[in-house]
Amino acid sequence: MSVTSDAKPGEGLTTTQSPFIENAKKSGRTFIDQPYGLYSEANQETWRRLYARIRPYWEKYSNPKFMQGVENLMLDPDRIPRLEDVNDKLCALTAFKAKAVAGYVPAYIFFDCIRQRIFPTTITIRDGKVLDYLPEPDIFHDVAGHVPMHTDTRFADVLVRFGEVAREAALRAQAMSEGEERLHLVESNIKALARFFWFTVEFGLMKNPGSEWGVCAYGSGLLSSCGELEYCVTSPKVQRYPAQLEWVINQYFEIDHYQPLLFVVDSFDHLFGMVDELALWLHGGKLDNVSPGEPAINEDDLKSFLEAEIAE
Fold it and tell me: Per-residue pLDDT tens for 110-159?
Protein backbone atom coordinates (compact mmCIF):
# COMPACT_ATOMS: atom_id res chain seq x y z
CA MET A 1 0.00 0.00 0.00
CA SER A 2 1.45 3.35 -0.99
CA VAL A 3 2.27 6.07 1.54
CA THR A 4 3.69 9.55 1.26
CA SER A 5 7.28 9.67 0.03
CA ASP A 6 8.67 11.00 3.31
CA ALA A 7 7.01 8.29 5.45
CA LYS A 8 9.34 5.65 6.87
CA PRO A 9 8.28 2.02 7.36
CA GLY A 10 7.67 1.33 11.03
CA GLU A 11 7.81 5.02 12.03
CA GLY A 12 4.60 4.53 13.96
CA LEU A 13 0.91 5.40 13.79
CA THR A 14 0.54 6.47 17.41
CA THR A 15 -2.37 8.79 18.15
CA THR A 16 -1.30 12.49 18.14
CA GLN A 17 2.27 11.45 17.24
CA SER A 18 2.03 10.34 13.60
CA PRO A 19 3.66 12.48 10.87
CA PHE A 20 1.68 10.58 8.23
CA ILE A 21 -1.64 11.57 9.80
CA GLU A 22 -0.57 15.16 10.40
CA ASN A 23 0.45 15.49 6.74
CA ALA A 24 -2.87 14.02 5.62
CA LYS A 25 -4.75 16.57 7.74
CA LYS A 26 -2.64 19.46 6.42
CA SER A 27 -3.41 18.44 2.86
CA GLY A 28 -7.14 18.40 3.64
CA ARG A 29 -7.63 14.66 3.22
CA THR A 30 -10.40 13.05 5.23
CA PHE A 31 -10.45 9.56 3.72
CA ILE A 32 -7.09 7.83 3.33
CA ASP A 33 -5.55 4.40 2.88
CA GLN A 34 -4.33 2.40 5.85
CA PRO A 35 -0.52 2.54 5.48
CA TYR A 36 -0.03 -0.75 7.30
CA GLY A 37 3.75 -0.75 6.97
CA LEU A 38 3.98 2.33 9.17
CA TYR A 39 2.81 0.53 12.32
CA SER A 40 5.71 0.13 14.70
CA GLU A 41 6.35 -2.91 16.84
CA ALA A 42 5.33 -0.75 19.81
CA ASN A 43 1.97 -0.14 18.07
CA GLN A 44 1.51 -3.90 17.59
CA GLU A 45 2.40 -4.54 21.23
CA THR A 46 -0.20 -1.99 22.32
CA TRP A 47 -2.86 -3.87 20.31
CA ARG A 48 -1.77 -7.18 21.89
CA ARG A 49 -1.98 -5.79 25.39
CA LEU A 50 -5.36 -4.14 24.82
CA TYR A 51 -6.85 -7.29 23.29
CA ALA A 52 -5.47 -9.63 25.95
CA ARG A 53 -6.79 -7.44 28.75
CA ILE A 54 -10.29 -6.98 27.40
CA ARG A 55 -11.16 -10.39 25.98
CA PRO A 56 -12.25 -11.87 29.37
CA TYR A 57 -14.45 -8.81 29.97
CA TRP A 58 -16.11 -9.23 26.56
CA GLU A 59 -16.91 -12.83 27.40
CA LYS A 60 -18.49 -11.81 30.69
CA TYR A 61 -20.27 -8.52 30.02
CA SER A 62 -20.87 -8.01 26.28
CA ASN A 63 -23.95 -8.64 24.18
CA PRO A 64 -23.82 -12.15 22.65
CA LYS A 65 -24.08 -10.63 19.17
CA PHE A 66 -20.85 -8.78 19.84
CA MET A 67 -18.92 -11.94 20.68
CA GLN A 68 -20.37 -13.61 17.61
CA GLY A 69 -19.09 -10.64 15.59
CA VAL A 70 -15.59 -10.97 17.07
CA GLU A 71 -15.51 -14.59 15.97
CA ASN A 72 -16.97 -13.82 12.53
CA LEU A 73 -14.31 -11.19 11.89
CA MET A 74 -11.54 -13.51 13.16
CA LEU A 75 -9.79 -10.57 14.79
CA ASP A 76 -6.14 -11.40 15.42
CA PRO A 77 -5.27 -10.88 19.10
CA ASP A 78 -1.63 -10.34 18.18
CA ARG A 79 -1.70 -7.96 15.22
CA ILE A 80 -3.50 -4.75 14.33
CA PRO A 81 -6.12 -5.67 11.72
CA ARG A 82 -5.78 -4.76 8.08
CA LEU A 83 -9.02 -3.05 7.12
CA GLU A 84 -9.12 -4.90 3.80
CA ASP A 85 -9.18 -8.22 5.71
CA VAL A 86 -11.88 -6.94 8.07
CA ASN A 87 -13.96 -5.78 5.12
CA ASP A 88 -13.72 -9.11 3.31
CA LYS A 89 -15.64 -10.70 6.17
CA LEU A 90 -17.80 -7.74 7.21
CA CYS A 91 -19.11 -6.88 3.75
CA ALA A 92 -20.19 -10.47 3.15
CA LEU A 93 -22.34 -10.37 6.29
CA THR A 94 -24.03 -6.94 6.25
CA ALA A 95 -22.50 -5.00 3.30
CA PHE A 96 -20.79 -2.65 5.77
CA LYS A 97 -17.20 -1.54 5.17
CA ALA A 98 -14.64 0.15 7.41
CA LYS A 99 -13.01 3.13 5.66
CA ALA A 100 -9.83 4.74 6.99
CA VAL A 101 -9.93 8.42 7.97
CA ALA A 102 -7.22 10.88 8.96
CA GLY A 103 -9.10 12.16 11.99
CA TYR A 104 -12.30 13.94 12.97
CA VAL A 105 -15.19 13.66 10.52
CA PRO A 106 -17.92 16.36 10.74
CA ALA A 107 -21.21 15.07 12.07
CA TYR A 108 -23.30 14.98 8.90
CA ILE A 109 -20.53 13.36 6.84
CA PHE A 110 -20.09 10.69 9.53
CA PHE A 111 -23.80 9.97 9.85
CA ASP A 112 -24.27 9.88 6.08
CA CYS A 113 -21.40 7.42 5.75
CA ILE A 114 -23.16 4.95 8.04
CA ARG A 115 -26.35 5.48 6.01
CA GLN A 116 -24.32 4.18 3.08
CA ARG A 117 -22.92 1.29 5.18
CA ILE A 118 -19.50 2.90 5.42
CA PHE A 119 -17.89 3.24 8.85
CA PRO A 120 -15.25 6.01 9.12
CA THR A 121 -12.42 4.28 10.95
CA THR A 122 -9.46 5.75 12.82
CA ILE A 123 -6.21 3.97 11.96
CA THR A 124 -3.89 5.31 14.68
CA ILE A 125 -3.54 3.47 17.97
CA ARG A 126 -3.18 4.98 21.44
CA ASP A 127 0.21 5.30 23.13
CA GLY A 128 1.04 2.14 25.06
CA LYS A 129 1.75 4.28 28.13
CA VAL A 130 -1.93 5.32 28.37
CA LEU A 131 -3.98 2.20 27.71
CA ASP A 132 -6.95 3.09 29.87
CA TYR A 133 -8.18 6.43 28.60
CA LEU A 134 -8.13 8.25 25.30
CA PRO A 135 -10.23 11.37 24.63
CA GLU A 136 -10.52 10.52 20.92
CA PRO A 137 -11.10 7.29 18.95
CA ASP A 138 -8.30 4.98 17.88
CA ILE A 139 -8.27 1.77 15.85
CA PHE A 140 -8.87 -0.36 18.93
CA HIS A 141 -11.98 1.61 19.81
CA ASP A 142 -13.24 1.61 16.21
CA VAL A 143 -12.37 -1.91 15.03
CA ALA A 144 -12.50 -3.89 18.28
CA GLY A 145 -15.26 -1.76 19.86
CA HIS A 146 -17.57 -0.85 16.97
CA VAL A 147 -17.07 -3.20 14.04
CA PRO A 148 -18.03 -6.56 15.62
CA MET A 149 -21.56 -5.17 16.17
CA HIS A 150 -21.69 -4.21 12.49
CA THR A 151 -21.71 -7.91 11.61
CA ASP A 152 -25.23 -8.26 13.05
CA THR A 153 -27.92 -7.63 10.45
CA ARG A 154 -30.42 -5.95 12.76
CA PHE A 155 -27.87 -3.67 14.37
CA ALA A 156 -26.53 -2.74 10.93
CA ASP A 157 -30.08 -1.82 9.92
CA VAL A 158 -30.32 0.44 13.00
CA LEU A 159 -27.21 2.33 11.89
CA VAL A 160 -28.50 2.78 8.34
CA ARG A 161 -31.89 3.98 9.58
CA PHE A 162 -30.18 6.44 11.92
CA GLY A 163 -28.16 7.76 8.97
CA GLU A 164 -31.40 8.24 7.05
CA VAL A 165 -32.80 10.32 9.91
CA ALA A 166 -29.66 12.48 9.84
CA ARG A 167 -30.17 12.99 6.10
CA GLU A 168 -33.78 14.03 6.75
CA ALA A 169 -32.50 16.50 9.37
CA ALA A 170 -30.09 18.04 6.82
CA LEU A 171 -32.81 18.34 4.18
CA ARG A 172 -35.10 19.97 6.74
CA ALA A 173 -32.34 22.39 7.80
CA GLN A 174 -31.65 23.46 4.24
CA ALA A 175 -35.35 24.10 3.62
CA MET A 176 -35.56 26.60 6.49
CA SER A 177 -35.26 30.35 6.06
CA GLU A 178 -31.88 31.72 7.13
CA GLY A 179 -31.56 33.45 10.47
CA GLU A 180 -30.81 32.97 14.15
CA GLU A 181 -33.85 30.77 14.72
CA ARG A 182 -32.70 28.42 11.97
CA LEU A 183 -29.26 28.10 13.54
CA HIS A 184 -30.79 27.37 16.94
CA LEU A 185 -33.11 24.69 15.55
CA VAL A 186 -30.39 22.98 13.52
CA GLU A 187 -27.98 23.02 16.46
CA SER A 188 -30.69 21.51 18.66
CA ASN A 189 -31.38 18.81 16.05
CA ILE A 190 -27.70 17.89 15.84
CA LYS A 191 -27.44 17.83 19.65
CA ALA A 192 -30.40 15.44 19.83
CA LEU A 193 -28.89 13.16 17.18
CA ALA A 194 -25.50 13.19 18.91
CA ARG A 195 -27.05 12.32 22.28
CA PHE A 196 -29.08 9.50 20.76
CA PHE A 197 -25.94 8.07 19.12
CA TRP A 198 -23.96 8.44 22.35
CA PHE A 199 -26.45 6.69 24.61
CA THR A 200 -27.13 3.85 22.15
CA VAL A 201 -24.35 3.09 19.65
CA GLU A 202 -21.55 4.33 21.91
CA PHE A 203 -22.78 3.64 25.46
CA GLY A 204 -25.86 1.47 25.12
CA LEU A 205 -26.96 -1.33 27.45
CA MET A 206 -29.47 -4.06 26.61
CA LYS A 207 -31.58 -6.34 28.77
CA ASN A 208 -30.03 -9.76 29.29
CA PRO A 209 -32.26 -11.88 31.55
CA GLY A 210 -29.81 -14.77 31.37
CA SER A 211 -27.04 -12.91 33.20
CA GLU A 212 -26.75 -12.30 36.93
CA TRP A 213 -26.86 -8.51 36.32
CA GLY A 214 -29.81 -8.51 33.92
CA VAL A 215 -28.03 -6.31 31.36
CA CYS A 216 -25.17 -6.52 28.87
CA ALA A 217 -23.23 -3.95 26.85
CA TYR A 218 -23.56 -3.33 23.12
CA GLY A 219 -22.16 0.23 22.95
CA SER A 220 -18.64 0.56 21.56
CA GLY A 221 -17.44 3.05 24.16
CA LEU A 222 -18.14 0.40 26.78
CA LEU A 223 -16.85 -2.52 24.73
CA SER A 224 -13.46 -0.91 24.12
CA SER A 225 -12.74 -0.13 27.80
CA CYS A 226 -11.97 -2.86 30.35
CA GLY A 227 -12.74 -0.69 33.32
CA GLU A 228 -15.93 0.86 32.02
CA LEU A 229 -17.25 -2.41 30.60
CA GLU A 230 -17.26 -4.04 34.02
CA TYR A 231 -18.35 -0.83 35.76
CA CYS A 232 -21.34 -0.19 33.50
CA VAL A 233 -22.82 -3.63 34.14
CA THR A 234 -21.98 -4.27 37.78
CA SER A 235 -21.47 -0.99 39.66
CA PRO A 236 -24.25 0.18 42.00
CA LYS A 237 -23.11 3.74 41.24
CA VAL A 238 -24.45 3.59 37.66
CA GLN A 239 -28.03 4.70 37.10
CA ARG A 240 -29.56 2.36 34.49
CA TYR A 241 -32.92 3.50 33.12
CA PRO A 242 -35.22 2.01 30.51
CA ALA A 243 -34.51 3.80 27.23
CA GLN A 244 -37.13 6.44 26.46
CA LEU A 245 -36.57 8.90 23.66
CA GLU A 246 -37.50 12.02 25.64
CA TRP A 247 -34.88 11.17 28.27
CA VAL A 248 -32.14 10.21 25.82
CA ILE A 249 -32.29 13.36 23.66
CA ASN A 250 -32.42 15.70 26.65
CA GLN A 251 -29.62 14.11 28.68
CA TYR A 252 -26.21 15.77 28.40
CA PHE A 253 -23.05 13.68 28.60
CA GLU A 254 -19.39 14.19 29.40
CA ILE A 255 -16.56 12.16 27.91
CA ASP A 256 -13.77 12.36 30.48
CA HIS A 257 -15.04 9.93 33.14
CA TYR A 258 -17.05 6.76 33.54
CA GLN A 259 -20.67 7.34 32.64
CA PRO A 260 -22.92 7.73 35.71
CA LEU A 261 -26.18 7.27 33.77
CA LEU A 262 -26.97 4.80 30.99
CA PHE A 263 -30.07 3.67 29.11
CA VAL A 264 -31.23 0.09 28.60
CA VAL A 265 -33.05 -1.12 25.47
CA ASP A 266 -35.06 -4.33 25.33
CA SER A 267 -33.64 -5.56 22.01
CA PHE A 268 -32.31 -4.38 18.67
CA ASP A 269 -35.89 -4.31 17.38
CA HIS A 270 -36.70 -1.93 20.24
CA LEU A 271 -33.72 0.21 19.25
CA PHE A 272 -34.80 0.29 15.61
CA GLY A 273 -38.25 1.41 16.73
CA MET A 274 -36.67 4.24 18.72
CA VAL A 275 -34.89 5.45 15.57
CA ASP A 276 -38.21 5.48 13.72
CA GLU A 277 -39.65 7.48 16.61
CA LEU A 278 -36.68 9.86 16.37
CA ALA A 279 -37.63 10.54 12.74
CA LEU A 280 -41.21 11.34 13.71
CA TRP A 281 -40.03 13.69 16.44
CA LEU A 282 -37.69 15.43 14.00
CA HIS A 283 -40.48 16.23 11.57
CA GLY A 284 -42.85 17.11 14.39
CA GLY A 285 -40.42 19.72 15.73
CA LYS A 286 -39.75 17.86 18.98
CA LEU A 287 -35.98 18.01 18.45
CA ASP A 288 -35.94 21.77 17.89
CA ASN A 289 -35.43 22.84 21.49
CA VAL A 290 -33.77 20.09 23.49
CA SER A 291 -32.19 20.82 26.85
CA PRO A 292 -28.88 22.74 26.85
CA GLY A 293 -25.54 21.24 27.76
CA GLU A 294 -23.08 18.84 26.22
CA PRO A 295 -22.26 18.03 23.56
CA ALA A 296 -21.23 21.41 22.20
CA ILE A 297 -21.93 21.69 18.47
CA ASN A 298 -18.92 23.11 16.68
CA GLU A 299 -18.94 25.16 13.48
CA ASP A 300 -17.80 22.26 11.30
CA ASP A 301 -20.67 20.07 12.51
CA LEU A 302 -23.18 22.85 11.89
CA LYS A 303 -21.83 23.57 8.41
CA SER A 304 -21.85 19.89 7.55
CA PHE A 305 -25.65 19.86 7.90
CA LEU A 306 -26.33 23.29 6.40
CA GLU A 307 -24.03 22.83 3.40
CA ALA A 308 -24.41 19.10 2.77
CA GLU A 309 -24.69 18.13 -0.88
CA ILE A 310 -27.67 15.80 -0.77
CA ALA A 311 -28.60 13.82 -3.86
CA GLU A 312 -32.29 13.15 -4.32
Answer: 999 999 999 999 999 999 888 876 668 999 999 999 999 999 999 999 99
Strand partners, 35: none
Residue 13, domain member (yes or no): no
The identity of residue 222, as a single letter, is: L
SS3 of 106, please? coil
CA-based angle 82:41:132, to the nearest 5? 85
Question: How much is the pTM?
Answer: 0.94
Judge whether 12 lies within some domain.
Answer: no
**Does any domain span residue 9?**
no
Residue 311 in any domain: the answer is no
Backbone angles phi, psi at 119, to 5 degrees: -110, 110
Helix (H) or strand (E) holding 118: strand 118-122
Q: Residue 264 to residues 201, 228, 234: CA-CA distances in angstroms? A: 12, 16, 14
What is the number of structural domains in the chain? 1
Helix locations, the chain, DSSP H: 19-26, 41-61, 64-73, 83-94, 107-115, 139, 153-175, 180-197, 220-223, 226-234, 245-248, 268-283, 299-306
pLDDT digits (tens, 9 = 90+) for 15-54: 999 999 999 999 999 999 999 999 999 999 999 999 999 9
Q: What is the CATH number of the domain that holds 49?
A: 1.10.800.10
Query: What distance in Å separates the CA atoms of residue 174 and residue 60, rounded to the nearest whole number?
Result: 46
- In single-letter form, the type of residue at position 154 comes to R
Domain that holds residue 119: 19-306
